[in-house]
Amino acid sequence: MVILDLVNRLLDGDKRACARAITKAENNEPGSIEILKEVYKKTGNAHIVGITGPPGGGKSTLTYRLSKELSDRGKKVGIIAIDPTSPFTGGSILGDRIRMNKLSTDPNVFIRSMGTRGHLGGLSKATHGAIKIFDAFGCDYIFVETVGVGQSEVDIVKTADTVVMIMVPGLGDDIQAIKAGIMEIADIFAINKSDLDGAERTAGEIKMMVEMGTVEKKPPILNVIASQNEGIKELLNEIDDHKKYLISSGELEERRLARLRLEIVNLIEEEIKSRIFNDKEIYNLLDNILKDVYNKDIDPYSAKDKLFNAII
Amino acid sequence: MVILDLVNRLLDGDKRACARAITKAENNEPGSIEILKEVYKKTGNAHIVGITGPPGGGKSTLTYRLSKELSDRGKKVGIIAIDPTSPFTGGSILGDRIRMNKLSTDPNVFIRSMGTRGHLGGLSKATHGAIKIFDAFGCDYIFVETVGVGQSEVDIVKTADTVVMIMVPGLGDDIQAIKAGIMEIADIFAINKSDLDGAERTAGEIKMMVEMGTVEKKPPILNVIASQNEGIKELLNEIDDHKKYLISSGELEERRLARLRLEIVNLIEEEIKSRIFNDKEIYNLLDNILKDVYNKDIDPYSAKDKLFNAII
């Protein structure tokens, strides 16, 4: 009853109901699965845009500008910012989220920061849940913003409908290596801070990499200066063009199936974890097995088999 | 027979057998579990040191200097570098790994780069496998080097025996936020490039954060200049002091139990994934369910239950 009421209010566009539902989903509260089951029926309209790139690349500023522009056009926007937060406290110090506060007064833009919360009800589950809720809430665009490293984080962003990869002129070696690692998932390259020295060289390097690549649709490369609102409209045009391409080529269905596949596999993992950590008997069994493994009475692989059989 | 031969050779210190075993474990080749079961009996002597920090912080250079110093003291060192690599190709462009090549001629230092390989036989399994093999191979120290972001990556580094957190003076907002997210897992802070402007301020900030923290053993804060080999011996002393503390306080057992717990839970997840992707019937079932989910005939959460029941 209460759940259905919450769902109806969020479908009606009630901002507080939307926030409440996301919190419930993120914290894995009782009723959250019922909410998500209900809202799922109303999803599929939002275009999911992954925004990724190296730390210091200006992802938040760019997301802010894109959202502002869309809001001015009367579009409703959801932003999900994935933060690498403390595995101990679950808290996060949100450096440049502060800038995001400018948007919090915009009636068309809705922002949510996600912590990476260790094992119970993980990051992927929470993010997929938030995407669904924003979608059913009526968002036309949902931006999923994450630093471009980490296996779980890359998995999430690469299953967006459109992936915008932010690059910056003149970053160090280490950062270049990170970029290289996930460049293949980009649908659009945005060279931010392109008034800085080396922007042309960076564009040239990306162009070369794109031309050597094997993907059918070569991603466009744009110059933007997010802090000065330059190139934002052009970037939005490219995002919309990519959306049209996805629809006409049939790739949209393919991507969304891939996203669902990832989500369902992750849900199964979470189910297993919750069975281990919430079932007292199994948790005690794990504790005992761990001591045996530590003492070398059994190896971790046989221990896994033993525990696995107890779970199923 | 062949497996036992490989294990015996690696236990005897055969470098090629060691490399071979790690490759098998990383690629989840047939026989890899048998190898790991065998080597597990011979583990427990190596001290596992996690090296983490923001991109551009000089992790590889510092790891290089530490390893060189240990080698000079007659110690055997294993290095596992976790790279955020392409989720598509599995390949990686190893920017500053090139520097590591200086070490590859050192007979006491053994280096391994790990890719993050999507779903089959994941990163955590491969890294834990490599740690075991290096340990049984006779390494006195094993460095696990990773950029300090990403849920899986943080999970791995935080279960090391000793965690060294590298900081650098004067990094941007975005990077500060990342640091903040994982600062609580540091056992030792190393401010690298401490000849740069702002080193004192950075040290002051860390000191304040440490003093406000709730951990019992306050982590020491060291100034180092890895590129000039300054502060390396002092850092090694701190690592050894921490090791002594772990043993005398009983925390070493606690940490190793936590590492085993993480490993076993991850192994169970991998088992589930391999059952989904390697069992043709289940894979087909997933494909069919996905279409139903896509068409909204069923929601992802009920789909998960259906698939879960088919697996067990």
Distance between the termini of chain A: 33 Å
Which structural category do the helix and sheet elements of chain A fall into? alpha/beta
Please name the two chains that share the biggest interface, counting residues whose Cβ lies under 8 Å from a Cβ on the partner chain: A-B, 87 and 87 residues
For this structure, the quaternary state is homodimer
Reading side by side through the largest sheet of chain A, how are the strands ordered? 3-2-4-1-5-6-7
CATH topology of the largest domain in chain A: Rossmann fold
Describe the largest sheet of chain A. 7 strands, parallel
Query: Could you spell the SSE succession of chain A in H and E letters?
Result: HHHEHEHEHEHEHEHEHHHH
Instruction: Bin the helical content of chain A.
Output: 40-55%
Q: How many whole angstroms does the radius of gyration of chain A measure?
A: 21 Å
Helix count from the secondary structure assignment of chain A: 13
Overall pLDDT of chain A: 84
Instruction: State the CATH superfamily name of the largest domain in chain A.
Output: P-loop containing nucleotide triphosphate hydrolases
- What would CATH call the class of the largest domain in chain A? Alpha Beta
Low-confidence segments of chain A, given as residue ranges, are: 85-99, 173-179
What is the number of domains of chain A?
A: 2
How many beta-strand segments of chain A?
7
Proportion of beta-strand residues of chain A: 5-15%
Name given to the CATH architecture of the largest domain in chain A: 3-Layer(aba) Sandwich
Instruction: Describe the global form of chain A.
Output: globular
